[in-house]
Write a structure and sequence with these properties.
This protein is an alpha+beta fold. The protein is built from 7 helices and 15 strands.
Amino acid sequence: MNILYQLNDDDCFFPPADRANKEGLLAFGGDLSPQRLIVAYANGIFPWYSENEPLLWWSLDPRLVIRPGEMKVSKSLRRTLRSGKFEMRIDTNFREVMLHCAETPRKDQDGTWIQDEMVDAYTRLHELGIAHSFETYQEGELVGGLYGLAIGQVFFGESMFHTVTDASKVAFYHLHRFLEEHGFKLIDCQQETNHLMSLGAYSIPRSAFLDELKVLTVESSLVGNWGSGKYEDMYLDIHQPKKLQFRAYNMDEDVSLSDG
């Protein structure tokens, strides 16, 4: 059956990610509070919805990942890195990176999933030291970057943009180096794109991805401003009770099921 779960308003918990349907859709409802987002990502789930849609939660199968130490750096990118044409900054302009990710046109994409409330929510996570941005500048102008969340030894990449060739690749390169230097084990890239696969990302089954999260997200997280160096190791609350109940809907027949 094609089951969709409704999240509870009085807690921040989720059905198991492996109950998502074949498209990866798992649940709807809830909110974008910091704690709910942390629990979601730690359990392989992320929000993704368009304007005038309810808040939708997804867990894709397969999952695109790359491990620190595995990035493919082309000769042309190495030349760009050596050229000094870009300046790299970390965690200095998080909100603007998100806005650029939302506003920069993309091939074969009409509009954006990065709604205003998402910008506000992830900016709150940044202020808490959990979400981070890697920013590429040229002559003082922001021309590329990416953002995501760090939980345990996993960086959950959300989106990237560029307005100048190679600017997002430079940001990803510096992210990759930072994560490798600080003992991270996995970068979640969510879904397949030619851009990320050209940098060395590859797909693994969701089951394998979730197994890794169970081990890696319970480790201490590097919380704070990564650019200023003002960060510390901290254990985040990602606990989910073993037994949870949610209202479920059979989408094939458009009927409500008993809680389960």
